[in-house]
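**Tokenised fold:**
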Amino acid sequence: MTVREHAVAREGRRPRAGAVEAAARIRAAGGFDAPLGVVLGTGLGGIADRLEDAWAIASRDTGWLASSTATGHRGRLVCGRLGGRPVVMLQGRVHAYEGFPPEMLTRGVELLAALGVRTLLLTNASGGLRPDMQGGELLVMNDHLDFVARPWGEGLEPMVGTVAPAAGLWYDPALVERALAATRAAGLPARQGVYAYLLGPSYETRAEYRMLRVMGADAVGMSTVPEVVVGRLLGLDVAAVSVVTNVARPDAPELTDADEVIRLAADSAEGVWAIVNALLERAVPG
């Protein structure tokens, strides 16, 4: 973390004015606030279709979000209910490899915060780095390695007198345990571990896979970490889960196909859905 980010974490932050204005437009058009926000990554957008009383708007129509060009990212914001409790979801995100600047990567999280979100669940698809992993299992992130290392959150508005949670603890341990308990109860494979964030869009070389394993990474992907950092700087409780869609075996490499990644991620939706339910129960106690 940069010196500036440490100062920001102590001071406290809030979404930029554009996010606040977009949230007001969404409410006026029929959307609503929610305590739980979810960002749905590659292949997981269909989870939002399970919400009751759903209201949706295209990302580009918010006047704040950009439309993703990445495969498997629908590009909508969906407000809905689960068991009568409000949830807001983003079907997809934008990535740095699409040509977007750093400040665009975190606009979705800012908008969720402006819509009242206090607990944030981020999801993605990743490549597994441990030989005992299997395609389709979930990695509940408990830490990350940021190999892109930009000053995430630099543009957020200062909020004097409010102290954000400790910035060094990116992932709420209680949420990690709750997510793992939800997958165990559902009988689905999951573990906790470290996610490595690389720029992409190319998949890693065999040498890079070996390096990442030595450095302690359990999975590698091209998103999420900027959103984690900004979510924490905004004072949100953050959890992140990655669907392992392929396992990197440097000594026996296989081709990774984007369509196969999307299919495997979609097949793991039940595990992510179980985590959504568990986190919503915490965000809105029954």
Observations:
- The CA atoms of residues 192 and 214 lie 17 Å apart.
- Confidence is low (pLDDT under 50) at residues 1-10.
- The domain at 3-283 is CATH 3.40.50.1580 (Rossmann fold).
- The chain has one domain: 3-283.
